[in-house]
Design a protein that fits this description.
Order of helices and strands: HEHEHEHEHEHEEHEHHEHH
Bound molecules: phosphoric acid mono(formamide)ester
Radius of gyration: 19 Å
Helix content: 25-40%
Number of strands: 9
Strand order of the largest sheet: 7-6-5-8-9
Number of helices: 11
């Protein structure tokens, strides 16, 4: 069956406004499935999905698994530790061996930028990127956009500032592509060492001071400082970073309007975001996680060839 998204979802860079909107619209009715006593519909019954996670994950791995199970797919989880990858088997050989067992889809998280596309070009199964190096994390950006749309009723014309470690962030790249495609105004704010040199070529405004970003924005998407990807001294110290670039309630109190607070997680509390902001009344950090399941159900369903009018033919798994 032909999918409106093509064979794979490796990123948002090459998706059209219509494709992104179709994913968000398809996610809407799937939200309700997770509120049912029996959280299951038969949409992917008979499909087999492998979750290949070569990097740590809590939210993405678990919400993909919930999404698959709530769509009645059969799922298998593979991590590098405990698989033959730890003995030197290549990514493609691993995937081809899984395909020999007649799987339908692979969800992959990998430390190398481009890993999802590399795999998608070499296997028949649908491939979904669950985060590849510093490249893209499309389902994270989709759930961020769904959360913004829930709160504001639109994406078009919204001012969203992505704060912090943009250099190492696949979440930032996917958000920039997705938000600009849907007509939002996007800015980035962070220390010069953590902003990619070419970032303004992506059509975003660059703020050097948190105060300027707070003055401008409707929503802040605050990124984790990715210490594990830093090979050099990008910041003087965590305390200094919090003092200059941390989103604190004192800074937010000076905002000319209420700002929606997003964070993809995991958070470094007291570094890029203070606890009273993370747990405050304008935070949608946990609703983002809830929306992650619906967005991933929508992506899996559409890639399997489903039509975006799923809600008109719902049903319970029997
Ligand atoms: N946001 C996100 O990707 O979180 P995990 O690393 O826990 O999956």
């Amino acid at each position: 069956m032909t999918s409106i998204l093509g064979k794979d979802l490796v990123g948002l860079e090459h998706l059209t406004r219509e494709q992104i909107t179709a994913i968000l619209d398809t996610a809407e009715p799937f939200k309700e499935v997770s509120e049912r006593p029996i959280k299951k519909v038969p949409a992917l019954r008979g499909k087999t999905i492998v979750n290949l996670f070569f990097e740590a994950s809590t939210r993405t791995r678990i919400s993909f698994e919930f999404a698959e199970k709530r769509l009645s797919a059969d799922t298998v989880n593979v991590a590098s530790a405990g698989s033959s990858v730890s003995k030197g088997e290549t990514l493609v050989d691993t995937a081809r061996n899984l395909e020999a067992m007649r799987i339908d889809m692979v969800v992959i998280r990998h430390g190398a930028s481009g890993a999802a596309k590399f795999l998608g070009d070499r296997i028949r199964s649908n491939v979904i990127n669950a985060g590849d190096g510093k490249h893209e994390h499309p389902t994270q950006a989709l759930l961020d956009m769904l959360t913004l749309r829930d709160r504001f009723g639109r994406i078009e014309g919204l001012r969203v500032c992505i704060m912090g470690d943009v250099l190492h962030s696949r979440v930032a790249r996917s958000n920039i592509w997705g938000l600009t495609r849907l007509g939002a105004e996007v800015a980035v704010c962070g220390p010069p060492t953590l902003l990619p040199r070419e970032v303004s070529e992506l059509g975003v405004t660059v703020f050097r001071r948190v105060e300027e970003a707070i003055e401008w924005a409707d929503a802040l998407n605050i990124l984790r400082l990715q210490l594990e990807r830093m090979t050099a001294g990008f910041i003087p110290s965590l305390r200094e970073y919090n003092r200059v670039f941390g989103v604190t309630s004192e800074r937010l109190a000076r905002a000319p309007r209420e700002l929606l607070i997003l964070h993809p997680g995991p958070m470094n509390r007291g570094v890029e975001i203070d606890s009273d902001v993370a747990d405050g009344p304008h935070s949608v950090i946990l609703p983002q996680v809830t929306n992650g399941v619906a967005v991933r159900m929508a992506v899996l369903y559409l890639l399997a060839g489903g039509a975006p009018d799923w809600a008109t033919t719902p049903g319970d798994a029997s």
